[in-house]
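ok so I'm stuck.
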Amino acid sequence: MPSPPPATGLAPPGIGSNPSPYRYGDEGLPVPWWFNPKTALLYRDLDVYDDDVVLSSGVKMGTTWLSRLLVNLLYDEDDDDDDVVDETTTTAADDDDDDNSASSRLRRRRHPGRLGQTYPESTYPTRIEKANDEYGIYDRVPNGADVVDKMFGDYVWEDLVGMPRPRLFVSHLFGRAYLPSMLFDDDDDAGDADDGGGGGSRTRRRGKGRLIVLLRNLKDTMISLHNFRGTPLDGMHGNEHGPGSFRRFVDVGACPNSYGSAFRWIAESANALDEIGPDRSLVVYYEDLVLDFRGEVRRICDFLGLSPLSESRLRRVETACGIKNMRDDANFRLGDLCCRGGGIGGWKDVTELNDEEHWSALDRVFDDMLGGVKIAEPLRSYQTR
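replied:
not stuck anymore, here's the structure
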């Protein structure tokens, strides 16, 4: 898919909270510079297994944290296995091991998300396409291939599809239009319209897999996005480079931030959750992870059908998912960048937006877009002084 030229006067397009000139799909969803449209389509058309887990998380809502937690819950089984291994190394014995009870060391080694999330849309379909940079994605920024590998690991779509089961897919993509279509119930055409029997019939295809949606209050989300990878060129309130972080964030109709408006993101995620139903979908709130980590771990384990964690394993999960541990772990991709230790309510201390006029404007957009949306209501208490 061809992309528009970079916007004049901006830092590398789609970097941090700078607006992105790249678009995807019929609706023109803004996407980051590393976004691969071909793989995004492969993700939407994924052959979903019943035990697949899909994490759909809004930008700057805690994706890295919950991804790390899910990897530990799904793949870490042996209490005595704390070794760090080369994430790209496998052996012939590894490849021949089809035993579902393989050690957690082997399973984590073969999981692209072990040392940081790997978004499907950040990859090329195959090694050959990646080596040839067939869409010129890596030319968009200096040393683009190295930058992508540092952020997401040296993986391709084939690696993600071949993950050990249960597979975990992590992405900012959202809603019916962009998530794997097989998550949802759907009508399949059956029969032959020309068979003389009065036309084809339609059968109901049942959805597969589980969907987890991660949410965070939008005021903290906006501040985290504003500070991500440095202050954007148009600042908080706008200048000759653009409208500024605040106006971009509350502009639902034309938000140029990567993955578009956070308000729309939540609204469409709510529709997807309603369609899939509570048996195969779960909402996790960033604030609940902060306030009651152990309780949320138990709730997630129950949703995934996992056995309750022993006290020793729960302590190990807490340690592995600690913000400081993730930030200081030299083997964890972008831990120093994505794990800033953001708490709850930091928006109240932002001097650039210390007047009620701006926050009231955001509240009005929230009411207009998300008033009455069930999954959005718990966010209100964290968006109030």
